[in-house]
User: Fold these one by one.
Assistant:
Number 1:
Amino acid sequence: MRGSVPRAADLYPPNVVPAQDGNGRPGTSGAGQKLNHSKPMPRPASHRKSQHLFDHWKQVQRRLAAAKHLALFLDFDGTLAPLRPRPADARLDESTRALLRRLARSPSITLCIISGRRRADLQKRVNVRRAIYLGLHGWERDTGARSAIAARGFLASARRLLTQRLSDLPHIWVGDKGPCFEVHYNGASGATIREARTIIRDVLRPLKKETRVLRGRKVWEVLPREIEGKGAAVRALLAEFPRPVLAIYIGDDTSDESAFQALLDGITVRVGRRRRTRAHFELCNPEEVSSFLQRLEAEVA
Ligand SMILES: [Mg+2]
């Protein structure tokens, strides 16, 4: 599947171009994945507000009680750990870590941490031994990378060129993530963001076929096509699970939308208030995610 169809609009910051439909076309709806779906969830749609998870707790409880096994997918930044202007400063609360360790020990739960971060970095920050870690939107797994990156050299050149050309713009900086990179614009003015966007488009024009740009919170991620996104990664991992399994996915960003779409039969939760999401439910912040995990622990105990 194509995780997210790249669009020029992905290059635009939210304050320049109105959001369209989250993370592009997430591909097939997960048909063929025989997931546990005893009760239909509220219909996810990109044109309505999602609903607070705790307001529908009884319904969720019934699904949890009926499930034989849970695949619990959790994003890191903005979901488990509060967002920080610099990703290097994001920290997991010790009580959340202890909670994750207890959940990972449960025989009825497989805990999967999925992030745009490198896998090694993610594993170090979460530090829960029994979890499965999916880095670079699921492209990096414990079994290694899912495919080779054909344009890796070109991407590295583009990163170096952008680092140079963006260096004079205040609050704009380039982060290297190996086979991909990101351009952060937290704190930059609208004019600066527009200027950065023009430079990025200019530099990436020759690589249009090999790359796509994913817009996150105050960041543009420049990804090779081979990194299909979280939706594709979640589907691939779930295909290895014994049936039946109920998938729960919690994430806060545009990059999580393809996973919400891939898990229409699961329980999907978007963190933070969003006008448009494909998730069934919403939670307000990482504190509420932690509260949900406590409720989940009580249900599976
Ligand atoms: Mg996130």
Number 2:
Amino acid sequence: MFRSGAQRCLHCDAVLTGPVCESCELTPQAAALILRRKIILRTGLFLLGSLAFVVATYRYPPLDVDGMLVFCGVVFFAGLGLAIWVERGALRGSQVAIRKRLFLALLPVPWLLAGLLVVNAKLDDAKVRRHYTRVVGKFAMSAIVPTRRLVVVSWRAGRRYERVPVSQGEYAEFHVGQEVVVEIHPGIGIPWVAGVVPASGFPVPSAGDPSPAQPGGWSARGSRSPGR
Ligand SMILES: [Zn+2]
């Protein structure tokens, strides 16, 4: 569809046969100006979407937030790079049709991820599940967005640790070695963190009894067994 060689209109991608595009009647200069304006506007939308995603990860923090943040970060920088590439290309009058399509394909991704987190939380009507565990590490970073994690012994099969996103208050409250209860909303596929509370207020679950499948039930996998 986009053979190299043929000069195409920057506005409508029609093949140029004369000084003015037959399809949209714009000169290449006018088409470049319109394209650059559009790209700037869409880049704004893309940045807003990325911001919406970050806000959603604070409002409904997924248990696996770090993987999602890395993915969205890659999309963010790829999208920004493509936007600059299209804009620079339009300025020089180069062919940008393929770059433009790549950018348009990435544009909705942050919005979709943000929407996914909101829908996952809003449609979630299951009870909070409490997981009894122990803090084994803490991690805080205040680069672009403040990041606070409590590293706890995992209750999920095949995993050693969970990096639980926490608030500033929770981060300050808990120390390494402390036993805690992590409250998790199951979501509709993406478990998200309701909060972390001290384990002292809860009865100690017996190792044979806990039933993670039961709403509000205990999951004591790995708890009370140091060295796991
Ligand atoms: Zn045109």
Number 3:
Amino acid sequence: MTDSPQIRSLYEECDVRRRTILQLLQKRGSIAVSDLTKRFGVSRMTIHRDLDVLVQQGLAQKRHGWVELAATPAPATAGSARCMMCQSEIPERTQFTLQLENGERLQACCPHCGLMMLSHRTGVQSALARDFLYGRIVNALEAFYVVESRIATCCAPSVLCFHDAASAADFQRGFGGSVLNYHETIAFLKQRHNPVLAAH
Ligand SMILES: [Zn+2]
Ligand SMILES: [Zn+2]
């Protein structure tokens, strides 16, 4: 070791920052670079250097001023990227991912299957969906959904995910359907899948 203590502590600082960024991504799916510079009080360049390391490690990807959790499936599941619920192929646009506490990663074709999968699972660390308008990965539990719009997806009734209630409402004005939050969407899907059970 020839590094001076100052340089070593600088390395450690970067390391802690990168780990914190990764934890944030695992919880929230995506973050604006400007949020990160504010949170850590460092320059954009510093944040971009941290992000580049995470990108090189295959853990994250950058996208127009945002960074998001890498969407590529873990090596163990690569090649079998089919929906856990209905076995159909997974379109990138509507992809839904559950990260389990045991390290397993489960994928679904769209929020319809994703939310059904989520409602049957325990030990879920995070649930990530893709915003249908902007393509960003978002926390599925805090997202809003438009159900039964005129846009047909792989599964019926169609369920599309939006980062916030306002963009879901904008979409709903153009394409019909209803805007629901996460809990309401799960209740709606359960009702559709089993009207008799859901009534009790
Ligand atoms: Zn599916
Ligand atoms: Zn689907």
Number 4:
Amino acid sequence: MAKSLFASGQRLQPDIVELRENVLPDGPVEHSARMAEIARACWPDGADRWTPAMIETLLASDNAFAVCRPDGFALLRVSGEEAELLSLDVLPEARRRGLGSEILREALHEAQARGACEVYLEVDTENAAALALYDRAGFVTRGTRKRYYRKPDGTWGDALVMARFFGSDDTDRAQRAERSDS
Ligand SMILES: CC(C)(COP(=O)(O)OP(=O)(O)OC[C@H]1O[C@@H](n2cnc3c(N)ncnc32)[C@H](O)[C@@H]1OP(=O)(O)O)[C@@H](O)C(=O)NCCC(=O)NCCS
């Protein structure tokens, strides 16, 4: 098993980093089920966004990993020097307590440790909470994908492509934000 690179995280298996506080009691399969449950609670209109099987398949691949807590998780995929944040979900009742930031911070550390020079993501232009969180974490807007999301009412919404570069001014900005959090 790979040695944990983090003071706060332990590795349940090479591709699941579990933040130490309030650890989940079971193994990788239970983690996948819990992540799917959290995703369902966060996206009630997209029940099949992440199923346990989809998460297990993803984590079985060489380059994907998860950061988990009982109330939230992130899923990422690293391809060479680029990592993609596929999902960052926190249960509604656990929001605005810093958990999303903590999971994201750990995910960025892990992506960097795996060789990524940048992390990118797509976010709904109307998702104010996520936009504020990513801005605070040092992500910058790279572009727009028009008509990218199908909304529950059948209309289409746009997505922003955002990226966080390691070792640039963005990193300094994110570190300042992290310091002001603590
Ligand atoms: C986006 C999300 C992960 C944030 O999780 P969280 O645990 O509430 O985030 P944090 O508590 O760490 O918030 C950090 C900062 O982000 C910003 N933020 C978070 N939620 C916000 C909201 N509803 N409105 C405005 N800003 C918000 C604030 O700047 C906040 O700092 P503050 O609480 O000191 O003001 C959570 O709202 C979520 O799961 N949403 C549904 C799923 C989703 O949209 N995921 C992102 C897909 S791209």
